[in-house]
Amino acid sequence: MKKSLFCRFWIRFLHYFARNVYPNKLRIFLHRARGVKIEKDCFIGFGVHIDDYCPEAILIERGGDIGAYSILLAHQPDFDNFLMTKNRDRKMIVKPITIKRESFLGTRVIVLPGVIIGEKSIIGAGSVVKSSIADRVVACGCPAIVKRSIV
What we know:
16 strands; 18% helix; globular
């Protein structure tokens, strides 16, 4: 997915301000301007890093809360022939991230590409989510594992 230099600069510029601006509504507005799909009644904490390479691959459904300084990455390098290619010739694999309705991510959570976080699930602070999480569960750890279900 090639983007023009201006487009990449604009996305990065908006991202810088979206991470560091104070009111939540303005943060959400700036992330939407970058291409992130954010529904109503969401909260995005201060300093949240949402992928610069492909922000349109991230969906935060209604009522999703993301704690401060969390990281959402929707891309990763293609590791086939990784050592044989030069840095500028490496391809990126984009896998969408979905945070379903009324889910909560604690502070400094890292979400890796291709993850779906289930409806009304809670992810503990400092967790690394590398695989999808079911609906109505509490998960934490590195990597995040389900600790219990929510009734």
